[in-house]
Amino acid sequence: MTASDAAGASGGLAGLGQRLRMAGQAALDSAGGAGDADGLLARLEQIGRCLEEAELRLRRGERDTEGALRAALEDWRGQARQVAALVAGALELAAGHAASAGVISGYGPAGARPAQTTGCRLDESG
Amino acid sequence: MGNLFVSLRNAAGAMKVFERATGVIQSNVANASTPGYAKQVQVLTAMPMDLDRGLPGGVASGGTLNLRNAYAEATVRQRATAAGYADELRTQLEGLEPLYDIGQDSGLGGAINHFFQSFAALTVAPNDLAARQVALDRADSLARSFRSMATGLVEAERSTQQALVARVDELNRKVEEIVAINEIFRQDFRAQDDPGLQARLANLLEDVSALADVSVLRREDGSVALYLGGQTLLASGSRAYPLTVDVSDPARVELLDAEGNPVTAQVSGGRIKALLDIRNTVLPGRMAELDQLASTLADDVNNLLAGGVDLDGNTPTQGLFAYDSSLGAARTLSRTSMTARELPVAAPAAPGGNGIAVQVAELARQRRIQGYTFVQFYAVQAAGVGRMVAEARENAGVTRQLELQARQFRDEIQRVNLDEEAVLLMQFQRAYEAAAQMIRVLDEMTQTVLGLIR
Lengths: 126, 454
What we know:
The complex is a heterodimer.
Chain A lengths: L2 H8 L1 H21 L4 H23 L8 H32 L1 H7 L13 E2 L4
Helix pairs in contact in A: 1-2, 2-3, 2-4
Chain B lengths: L1 H29 L9 E7 L2 E2 L4 E2 L2 E8 L3 H27 L10 H18 L4 H59 L7 H17 L2 E5 L5 E5 L3 E5 L2 E2 L3 E3 L7 E3 L13 H37 L14 E2 L6 H4 L1 E2 L19 H9 L10 H42 L2 H36 L1
Antiparallel strand pairs in B: 1-4, 2-3, 5-6, 6-7, 7-8, 9-10, 11-12
Helix pairs in contact in B: 2-5, 2-6, 2-9, 3-4, 3-8, 3-9, 4-5, 4-6, 6-8, 6-9
């Protein structure tokens, strides 16, 4: 348990909401970087733990009297939309890159130089 | 003797080639942080060796290979187009948001409330000249609020138009620079191996892509041809085909190609598309809503008052509000010269009474426009603009991140060899597939927890 976890545990549902909010922002930051997939997975796991804890505590009868947890959940939903868009973007990059293998060899050491190809090549479609 | 000579020539030749290779490596190191720079590789080719036929063997330079990945470059440009559109849309909409004041007592909503409140006060004291004057003053204030908001929208149209012209000029300038590079390539084929020039070209193509969706066609001579929306030629070889903006029609601006043909519909992305959308769709739409609100409110009030009598029992000769619908109701709305004494708030059957004042005051609660009261209609429009701004902010953030993601990805790919690249791609894909699945699960969990709170 980290220091912030401990603070959340002692701070009621509002503290849990704060942890969720911080984890959501960290996930968004990780998703923005193309190379930080591991970091992103770790942040998503952290969010999963927050949500599990929230469900458990609510089922035990704790009340979100100030609406802080609800606000944090709504914030996370907004962040999740953005994270999902960035993850879809990363997958699109990877898939598209793999599909363009022919183009890669055309430019790489194993293939012909661009000047040796025939005709024109449209490398971006509108 | 001959063999020794051959060896010396081979050694000298190889030295020159390796020297060139070292230069390429130095260039890679020196340009590691140069935007748009792609790693170069010196290709070493074994020369045929057959001493009897005078072929000395050795190694020769096969020229440099540009490892710029075409797909990665195209993706960066596509995402730059999306990010350019979203950012420009956000900028323009944020400028629009302050016009829509949603305070209870301020802005147009407040002016509508105050106007109807003044008639509610008249129902209590219909013959009080001071109360009648307050109603006239509130009518004045309401008309001013409409005009002020309409002026704000007109001003927004004007500034959007200026921004559009500036962006199109910027696009034309960038295309001119690309054409200049094309010319260098055409004059000297070896210039294609100049990494600095290639980097400049790549940066220019990215800049152009942020302005509009442009297809790039690479030709054998190293030059590029550019097509707006994949259709209209912007540059080919050493010729540029500049775009212009036609602002002669006040209803909508038109983007024209070099021959004067309208090409607005061909633009589907970038900052220029965002400015066209704001200027031709968003702002006219908001103005039409405002005009509808102004004309409906003015007509309803005028129609009710037309059925009343003034303090002297006379029927009115004019309405309380006037406007010119051909120029726009909101922009031209004004209070007429009707005096406090002439305000016809009494029903003809009960002169000196409050019959008409009651009906006007009740208008505030009636759903007179698209199923809404006047204030609700305004609030819906304001909320719509607020929603657009919020969405635009979110989209601008996401598309900017997606652009950065594509740039990072491109840079990662260019650092590694092809075998490593395949491994990297697989790891990358698996990790993000797992992340996509996790997000779906987390979404369900979030719904569950929200359900428990509600």
